[in-house]
Amino acid sequence: MHSTLCLLAMLAANAMPAAAQNRGMLPEQQLLKALQTAEQGGTVQAARLTRQTMAACLPADSSAYCTLGAILLCSGRISQADTAFGKALGIAPSDALALYGAGLTALAMNQPERAKLLFEQSARQGGDVTDITLATRYLQLLQGASLNLRQAHMPARAEALRQSLQAMSELHTGAQASVFLRLCKAESALKTPPFMQPFAPLATFSKSTPVAGGGVLQRTQTDVPPLPRTAPLQGIVQFAPHTSQGAAMVSFAVDGQTLLLSDVQPFVCHWNSRRASNGPHKLQITLYNSNGAELAQAVRTIMVYNPDAQNRADMQLRASLWRMLMLQPDRYALADTLGTLAAKQGDSMAARYWFIQAAAAHPNAGILRQIREYHLLSSGAPPVWGGPDHRKEVALTFDDGPVAGITDALLHTLQKLGVKGTFFVIGRHVLQHPNITKRIAAAGMELANHSFTHPNLTRLTPEEIARQILETDAAVLDATGRLPRYLRPPGGDWNPKVAAAAHQWGITPCMWSVDAWAAEEVGAYPAIRTVLQQVHPGAIILMHNGRLATIQALPTIVNALKKAGYRFVTVSRLLGMQPPRLVMNPQKLPANAGMR
Fold it and tell me: Which candidate in 30, 195, 392, 549 could, as Cys together with 360 as Cys, close a disulfide (CB 3.0–4.6 Å)?
């Protein structure tokens, strides 16, 4: 390919804004960063970074469209993902990755014949054998074929789907014990808690919606940038000044390296762009007079993209895309099937466990009916602010834990003082510190729900609120075998939408009548003074699990209130309720639940 670049019109459309350069990273590195951000839960930021990179750096690169397509597909934005992969194929019709991605979106849109054709084309173009084989076998399973993957040799990353496919193929043969075992192996192979969906295209094993996304992408634009009007530079490129009037010499430099110093009209420089890496480069053209004085200079960012270039960053990006786009089993499908099998085997404990995990993976009306049948939900009473005022009882409550280095000290202090407390835990902290959570329960304390990531629940959708509640329930269940009975919304932020979600999923909001938060921020003495001044019979005292001042204040608070005739109880005891129900023995590993 031959192209000419002039001094005063240097492909301004391809000039890269400084904000998009991301500190000198190559475009492929920026896209790889977007993938990593998406896998960590930052789907909105990832989609934004991808589109910015495409607009500024890689306007005609199929890898960029494949990256955006992967993020959209793994977030459940199927039609937009199909558009992105289609545009990648518009640039490179034989791109194996784009063909495979388009095959997944076709499968997700219930177009099996189109999906089959695209998978076959991807295989002919050298696509990833494991990804394509598993997708093809999944398609065959949906169409009623029996599979035999028992002896199939596949990499470890494929084990979860391999076991799932084999289990679902055997499900209708009556071999329920082997199916249960395979599904448990699939759960173990995913190496994350049973309710956490991988950021991947999910095999749902549903003929109506065969593929879903494991992530969430809401409240953001998901438009796919159009194909560019101006292509990046490729092959042999010809540079020339727009005008050379009065010039005796012209120099050409790329990235500070001089290409040519010419004193021969018409001052043309030929450059082999294949010797440069794909991505942005700085071109500088300088005009001099006969005395060597500079007349004019132009500096622009140019974009190079040679599809056949051995770009290490692009190879790494594509390897990551293949990994991300490998089908993974839907955690909801696995947990719901495990719960159903356990119920058929008469193991109600395992059934309860797996149905709770399924609800956390995908809250919906069907699983809600299942867990109601097992009486796993309380009545979902209106918010409580305190207990009866005719008994001198109070409930100490501690928000935000568990916290390494603090919670154990708090537990030790409470046990030394001989009092019980209620810990409103954050779900992600429970996952980080399951052993601390177990120690809280073993010490006779009550565990309650403080959301999974501590957001303002009023700003979330009903499904997001349900996930915040249920994922924390599932995390506590995993660690202790018990389900929390109470929810404390972060910051006390509350509205009818949050109330409806709490009622639907059978958890009672628990607020407070004594707030020590601001005093705890100052120190132990202000916390002591605040609690002792505001305390009253039936009080629910709000404190926090994470501050040294709280631990320092507790002995004085407890001893003073004991002298005044107060007893310290959990929230459930204060309200005259039964403690949280034991759903399963926490010593019984989830992977073995229901096995006989």
Answer: 195
